[in-house]
Amino acid sequence: MLIKTLLNKVERFKSFVYDTVHIAIIAGNEVLIIDIRLRSNSNPRCHKCGKRCGTYDRQPKRLFEHVPIWTFKVYFRYAPRRVSCPDHGIKVEAMPWAYGKERMTRSYKVYLARGQRGCRGRKPPPFSRLVGIRYFALLNSSSITAYPIEPWMILPRSISYAW
Fold first, then answer.
1. 156 pLDDT higher than 50
2. Residue 140 and residue 123: Cα distance in Å, rounded?
3. Is the pLDDT assigned to residue 139 strictly greater than 60?
């Protein structure tokens, strides 16, 4: 079974398609990089109001850290579009996997927030060493409720993890 098939079963995005999957080396570690491309004829959404608007231009490709698969760190690679919203001006499009300029996906933040439950203390919790991330990134993942959830941001199905 292909990794793209697994991702489509777990996390499918309406206006985007998982394109290519390959292994690369980042900071001396082998990681999976999953390219995301646009679905044909899809218009971007303004991240402030959620309206579909015209495309202004594209930004350079960025990496978004996703939930690890087996022993590999996983990154989504995507070049965000900028939208020309009549109400808010030129803004970066709303991406269903990340908030604004965040470098972690929403799913990864939920994964980390659930993993750190019960590990609160002065020393870095063992979960951060197990997952292989910095302790401060783990602390920032607990702020996922600080962002307002708009109705158009909600996935059509719930994501549940077995703990």
1. no
2. 16
3. no
